[in-house]
Amino acid sequence: MGYIIKYHVKDYLKKEKMRMATPTYEALDKKIEEILDAAVLRARKNKKLTVRPHDL
User: Fold this and answer.
1) pLDDT, tens digit, for every residue of 28-56?
2) Beta-sheet strands, E only, within 6-56
3) What's the domain range around 32?
4) Number of domains observed in the structure of the chain
């Protein structure tokens, strides 16, 4: 599942005068999924059904 919009990432990196290899998009998606998984666990641990900024 893709969490990022490649165009926006590419646009940001272009402004920074950088490029990104294609496999890096997949790694970025994986990192986002890990962050979200951890946030869900924290919210559930606190008996909440909503992930909030402090859960990240």
Assistant:
1) 999 999 999 999 999 999 999 999 999 99
2) none
3) 6-55
4) 1
